[in-house]
Amino acid sequence: MRHMIALTAAIAAVLTLSGCQPDTPAENRQDVQKARQEAAQDVAEVRREAAQDVGAAQQDVSEAAAAGAEDVREQQADAMDQSAESNYDVAIANAEAAHKVAEEKCDVLSGDAKDACNKTADAAYDQAKVNAEQLKDAREAAADAVDDN
Questions:
Q1: Going along 17-94, which residue ranges are E strands?
Q2: What whole-number distance in Å separates Cα of residue 57 and Cα of residue 46?
Q3: What whole-number distance in Å separates Cα of residue 29 and Cα of residue 58?
């Protein structure tokens, strides 16, 4: 009976640990390709939404200008804000997409190499978010300057 319990425990341990092994190179290539495709779809969707939002904001500017409205500058500033927000959304979508692909590439590794790979991927993702935020802030400041004039 003791041998049966030990055998069962050993089999359970092997099955559990087999799920912790890194992907084979072939599996990893498939996972990376799938991540790239999903990322491209996600980014394309964000780009479509951003283009619609920016287009609507530009339409508002055109309508205000055609109507001789006094708030054309305000509409221009709003359009610039919308553009800044849309560009930020696209930049974040690109960063997330790159991060997903990088994480998949790390899955073929194990141990310290995998940890280092994931840290590098995380650092690149964090930096991309910081860059996107800084660019958005600069564009919003430009929009505020237009609105203040």
A1: none
A2: 16
A3: 42
- CB neighbours of residue 13 within 10 Å: 10
- Structural domain contains residue 18: no
Q: State the residue range of the domain holding 75.
A: 24-148
HSE (side-chain half, CA atoms, 13 Å) at 136? 15
The verdict on residue 135 lying in a domain is yes
- In the chain, the number of structural domains is 1
The reply to whether 82 falls in a domain is: yes
Which tens digit of pLDDT belongs to each residue from 3-21?
445 444 445 544 444 445 6
Give the total residue count for the chain.
149
Tell me the one-letter amino acid at 115: D
Tell me, yes or no, whether 10 lies in a domain: no
59 contacts 99 by C-beta, under 8 angstroms: no
Each residue of 54-104: pLDDT tens digit? 999 999 999 988 888 778 888 999 999 999 999 999 999 999 999 999 999
On the CB side of 99, how many CA atoms lie within 13 Å of its CA? 17
